[in-house]
Every structure is written in structure tokens, then in C-alpha cells.
Amino acid sequence: MSWAAAAAVLAGGLLLSWTLVFLGLALGLLSFLLWLDRRYALERVTYTRSFSQRVVPWGSDVEVVAEIHNRKLLPVLSLEVRDLWPSAVTPLDVELAPNYRPRTETLRLGIALGWYESVRRRMHVRCSQRGLFAFGPVELQAVDLLGVESVLREDPGRHRLTVHPRVLPVTGLGRFVTRLAIERPADASLIRDPAALAGTRGYQAGDPLRDINWRATARSGSLSVNVWEPTQAAEAKILLDLRTYWRVWDGIDPELLELLCVVAGSLADALNRRGFAVGLASNALALGSRDAVNLIPQCGATGPILDALAAVVPSSPYQFSATLSDHLAVAGPEAHIVITPARTPGLGALIAELHQRSPTLVIAVGEADTLERHLVDAVVPRTFDWRTSESLAVG
């Protein structure tokens, strides 16, 4: 177009035609505006995405806020935003378009932005699947003034949403709690039992001021602090088998996998509420890791355990028998809760040995077809509907 404008101006000058000159100048101005529009259409145009929560329980709703900013004088007359969303989340007030990438869909937003204008769009999604879900990248495409050519830019704009497995209240656990309650001194605790005062000693740098014994200080004339008996904590470790089939080439049973995660998460939460320090070991791998999940028992560890369960990948390369053998080699005095679909041969002898080492609770999820019946304390049936049930019975 710029060549045509120059030719029209030149021809108008030679022919003394002001019409051609004016036409050439108009074409030149239009050509300049088109170049300016194509060159700076996406300059200082940003797209941001934010979440009301980044870690959510199963079944909850999350607000997603998309903001597009044009921080320049040049307007953007036609802008299309294509944002990749995981197909596992369910939008409540927008429709997503299909995408060629697996397990993803596209959020499309078409807008026009004036100079220094911002647009905000609020959307809501329902998190009805457990896992770690990635949002992004995002593509921004602006069309020129004539609608002929477009400018495309891809921004990383990646975010991750963590959806925990559903946690149900556990009924029937009371009759097992006494068996599992092995107490040992906790490494650290913010709780002080007034009846556990062992004596006093001289103040040392770093001692908390709340431990100063003012009566002893007045008697001795120097700062004295209380000395407490070690706080006792009951410890339990959940040993979780996430191999839904013995042979890895048989595939994955996704419903059984989710049920196993629900049982493990619910038991971890129930034991934490009863004062247990709870840990988790499994033959499952976390997303992006080559090591099996292994969390040491901690008080108030429901959050880390649910994070680990949200991150486990569907397929595990490790047999649960190997996990049990490795754990028996280093097992401490803590109690154990074995959760397994009981589809791996050879578990009976390992679980019997674990029973001899420390109190052990065995929960079979699905069928207990490969375990001796006397080793199984409770069975969660394969037909248990964890999505609609109000509690999980292990009695």
C-alpha cells in the first residue's frame, strides 16, 4: 500500500492532479496507521489470571478473575484471548471451546480496548476432580484496522490449581484408636501442660520470655526459666497402596484409585483431629517426582498429606510389597494403617510381620481376595459412593 501511495503522489505531481496527490497522501496515511497498528497492537497489552483460592477441597467452587490491560495511547479495536484451561474443572458461567491438546479446553474472550483501558471478567469453576491442574499458556491475537492481518503473541501465564481428595467424617474408628495410640516424646510442641513442670534452670539466650519463672527469679536474684517434661504425641503412619491392578499393563481403575485417596485422606484427617501425628508412605509417585511418596508423622499434617494425595499420578511403577519391605527395614515404633485394594500377592506375610512390630490396622478397599481374613480389620466396599455419602464407616 505504501508503494501505491508513493506512486499516486508522484503521478499526481507529474499530471498536476490534486486528486491523485490527495489520494496518495490518504493512502500513505492509512499505510502508516496500519503499520503502527500492526507494530504496536499488542505492545503493553497484558493478560492476568487470579484465583480466589489456589488449594481447594474437592467439590468446591473457585472464582477466576481474568484482567486485560491496554497501557498505551493506541487502542486495540479487536482482541481475542485464547486461554488454555484444564478440562477437569467445570465452568459454571462460561463455555469452553475444544482444544487439540489432551485434557485441555480453550477459554475464548473477544474484546475491544480503548487507550489505557482495562477489562475484568469474573468466572466461576467447580472442582469436581482431584489433582493438580495447570492453566495456561495464553494466546493474544489482535486484528488490524482493516481486519486483514493479525498479530499473535503467546504468554506463559501459567498457574496451578490443587484440588484435594474429598475428606469424609470417619465413623467406627473409635474402637481402633486405643490399639493405635503408642506415645513417644514429640520433637517440638507449642502446647505446654501445666502439670508437666519438671523444675527450673538459669536463663539462656534464646529461651522464650513466656517460660520465665518470676517467683524463682525473685528468690535467686537471676533469671530462671521453667523446664517442662517432653510433650507426648501418638504417631501413626498410613501405608497406602495405589496400584489398582497387580500387573501394570492391566491399566488403571480410576474409580478405585479415587476411592483409595478418599479413604486415606479421610483417615489422616480423623487421626489428626484425635491428636495423632500422622505420616504417609505409598508406592505412588507425585507429579514431577521420581520418588515414592513418603511423609514422616507430624501433628496437624492433614494439609501436606492431602497435597501429596492430590499430586499422585495414576500409574505407579512400584509394587506395594516392595514399599512394605522397605518400610519394615526402617520402621519406627509408630502405629500403622495399611490401606490396600489387596490385589498384590504376597502381602499377607509382610502385613503379619508389621503386626508383630507395632499396632497395625488393615483396611481393604474393594475386595480382600488376596489377604487372609484374620489380617483385615475393615473393608470399604468397591460400591461405596464417596461422592454422595456423608461419612466413611470403618467399623
Walkthrough of the structure:
By secondary structure, the protein is an alpha/beta fold. The chain folds into 4 domains: 2-40; 45-163, Immunoglobulin-like (Sandwich); 170-185 and 233-393, Rossmann fold (3-Layer(aba) Sandwich), CATH 3.40.50; 194-228, no CATH class. Helices cover 26% and strands 35% of the residues. The protein has helices at 2-15, 18-40, 174-180, 214-220, 254-273, 302-311, 320-330, 347-357; strands spanning 45-51, 55-56, 61-70, 76-86, 89-91, 97-98, 104-113, 117-127, 131-135, 138-143, 150-155, 159-163, 170-171, 183-185, 197-202, 224-228, 232-240, 276-285, 292-299, 335-340, 360-366, 378-381, 392-393. The strands form 6 sheets. Strands 14, 17, 18, 19, 20, 21 and 22 form a 7-stranded mixed sheet that branches. Strand 18 and strand 19 form a beta hairpin. The protein is flat and about 110 Å long. Residues 183-193 have low confidence and may be disordered.
What order do the helices and strands come in, and which of them pair?
Blueprint: H1 2-15, H2 18-40, E1 45-51, E2 55-56, E3 61-70, E4 76-86, E5 89-91, E6 97-98, E7 104-113, E8 117-127, E9 131-135, E10 138-143, E11 150-155, E12 159-163, E13 170-171, H3 174-180, E14 183-185, E15 197-202, H4 214-220, E16 224-228, E17 232-240, H5 254-273, E18 276-285, E19 292-299, H6 302-311, H7 320-330, E20 335-340, H8 347-357, E21 360-366, E22 378-381, E23 392-393
Parallel strand pairs: 2-12, 13-23, 17-18, 17-20, 20-21, 21-22
Antiparallel strand pairs: 1-3, 3-8, 4-7, 4-10, 5-8, 6-7, 9-12, 10-11, 14-17, 15-16, 18-19
Helix pairs in contact: 1-2, 5-6, 7-8
